[in-house]
Amino acid sequence: MISSTTFFIYKTTIPTPSNYSLTFPFNSNVFHYRSIPNKKKKMPFPLFTSSTIIGAVELLHSPLSFFSTSMINFINPPLHPSVDPNHVLTGNFAPVDSKLPPTPCLAVEGKLPQSLNGTYIRNGPNPPRHPHGPHHLFEGDGMLHAIKLSDGEATFCSRYVRTYKYDLEKNHGFPIFPNILSGFYSVVDLSRCAIAIYRVLKGQIDPRKGFGLANTSVSLFSNNLFALGESDLPYAIHLTEDGDIETIGRHDFDGKAFINMTAHPKINPETGEAFAFRCSPIPPYVTFFCIDKKGSKQEDIPIFSMVNPTFVHDFSVTKQYIVFSESQLEINPLRLLMCQGMPVMAVLDKVPRIGVLRRYSSTGTGIKWFEAAAFNAMHVINAWEEEDDEEIILVAPNAISIENLFHDIEKVHFSLEKVRINLGNGSVTRTTLSEKNLEMGSINPSYMGKKNRYAYMGIGDMIPKMSGVVKIDLDLECEVSRRVYGDGCFGGEPMFVAKDGAVEEDDGYIVTYMHDENNGVSRFVVMDAKSQTLDVVAAMKLPRRVPYGFHGLFVGRGDLDQMR
């Protein structure tokens, strides 16, 4: 029935049902309008039926819906799964709720060797609150998971690294620093950055105290234990006698260290020196330096011959040389300002190089570069010189399809290679050691920078989620032992721990945290490094789930006692 109310559209009076309204709410599929009382004046145009109204609504709906959706996507577009926290932080990549004080662990398989005494401590990201905006797997505040082994008993503990960022955000109760690695994709992301800059200008944030996550690795040098992340300086930590973890604070080496340093310093087991570098998006892109046994940082050595802003994550040190791998990954901060995503991108027409510099060189001008086509080493297992000093051997996983490293890491194949660099004629020859996807490995640490025979590598499922471990013979250039964890079971970086008084290189254990996705239980596993199938010696059930993480370290009882 037609009521006595009308609505004027473009001078057209349309009969409408009574009490009907018309509006255009933002991003809504509902079409409303308000009625105007009919003054019973002569209608200037013919009346339309109610079907005409529906047709007009349907006609306008598509462009309005497109407009509203486009505006939303412009302001805050959908995120790629690799940076969507609702996708990234799931399963055993999800953070654990809070810290865990020292808690005894029970053996569920075998028993711990009485001689295996010390603490295994592993680092990894664990965001304390759900991120606002983009979040990559490699981001999140550092949490240390430590298991103290003493005379066959085990005590487990988890604590955050109390960085300046962590404490500041904990006190405020919300994120203050925007995620940088995951990138900026919208004006919303830029706004978060602008707010952080405003807080710096207002004195609410002190950039001199750093803004890193300390979530990548653990290292022991200069009689200090450090948690590291390459966007900041290291944080000194302390392991208590009862197995707890305490953060001492950010360590700037008496004010001599500048902004940041690598999360993979190399420690000379004979001299106690630590060799490190820092990576920067502005020249010099890489700066090398050394820290002596007493913790005194030496002079910087800038490498100006690296002419592109290459993302360098790791390097290697031999008896006489420093070896850098210049990959196809480059840093471009302008991508953030232009909302183009991550500041790190692959430049596929670039030819990677390997740089060799004398270890105690006073300048970076003497570095020699050797082209190595499509060689992208994110981590280095070891390097050494051959006896004639004419060749350097470099062992490292090569990331094939490097363009997928950050957004589709499951598409990247890490091919473990033995690279031979001839310093005389400049030739580079490479040998693939395994067809498997191998990453996150370790060696007997006493062989760092020296010729060694064995490497222990994680079998990649989705890095850093490893489905097993293999033992590679670097002399025979093949796999000699293997252990696959089983359906639904995944571990992390396999860490070699030498037995006390060991004579042979592989006389020791492989330790790692392992998680069973079938029942949600995490374990600490000890394997026999010499056995053909890397037999499990002991497995300790942990008091709670341990998320997949990055790099760890075993600190022997003697080193712990010395630090105390």
Observed structural traits:
single chain; 564 residues; mainly beta; 6-stranded antiparallel β-sheet; 5-stranded antiparallel β-sheet; 12% helix; globular; disordered N terminus
Characterize the structure shown:
There is one protein chain. With 564 residues, the chain is mainly β. Strands 5, 31, 32, 33, 34 and 35 form a 6-stranded antiparallel beta sheet that branches. A 5-stranded antiparallel beta sheet has the order 4-8-7-6-36. Residues 1-45 have low confidence and may be disordered.
The helix count comes to 6
Radius of gyration from CA coordinates? 29 Å
Q: Could you estimate the helical fraction of the residues in percent?
A: 10-25%
Shape: globular
Mean pLDDT: 89
Distance between the termini: 91 Å
Helix/strand-derived category reads mainly beta
Largest sheet: 6 strands, antiparallel
Catalogue the unreliable spans: 1-45
Strand content: 35-45%
| DSSP summary, beta strand count | 36
